[in-house]
Amino acid sequence: MRVTSMLPDVQYAIQQSNQSLATALQQVSTGNRVNQLSDDPTASANMVRSLASSANVDQYTANVSALQSRLQTADSAISSVVTSLNQAITLGTEGATSTTSTTDRQAIATQAQGILSDVVSQANASYQGSYLFGGSATTSPPFVADATSASGYTYKGNDTANQVQVGDSTNISANIPGDQLFTSGTNVIGSLSSLVTALQSGTSAQIGAATTAISSALNALDVQRTPLSNTVDQLNSQESYLGQEKVTLSTQQNSLVSINLAEAATNLSQAETAHSAVLAATAQALPTTLLSYLK
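^ thats the sequence. predicted structure below, dont judge the formating
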């Protein structure tokens, strides 16, 4: 009866010893002191929250990266338009000279028409199949040829500035609507079209006026472009912040669940010693036959 009454206590002691040894072995093999919820419920709960924050940071970082590439493409397109406008001003200045022959003006008009086509092409620039300057209308070209329009083109996009989340409480505009950049806000396309017409059939004064309009359009474009540059700077700052936040969260997660290898080795040694002691004590307390049964 004495042996029988001891049996539950012996079984419990062995189970606890086995569990402690298994935990110590797992700590050594994984490098973590928390491998399941029961190891440390508080640390586990904090780990879940930290991992959720890391997932958000990863998504924000991906959004920043994609937006940087998109805005860099947009800025490159605008830079190309700026170059084209400067070329157009040079052509207009040459064409407005009274000594320029009609034949030469026609040749200059052809060059100006090519510049207009290039500018429209840049205004219809896309990134990964998405048109950059159509507002939220990103699936079709924002500027289309229209013979009824004074400039020869019509804007088919909208005025929506798309927002992308790059932080828990930070959203950034992903675009500048094309009408602000190339028509109503700056009249880039209209002024170039007027220059082509003036070179083809206008007077020196009309060519000069069209050239002046292009200069004004260029200045206005620089103003409209400023928010884009500011957004790029903001993205760069946010990228740095998110990178640091990733490091902070990683450090936090490591402190919550990891274990020093020396400590893990010590825990394993202690668990092995304790387990051996339990088995030795059991061997002393119980008959050999019963010990065999338990094994």
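The chain has two domains: 2-33+258-294, 83-232.
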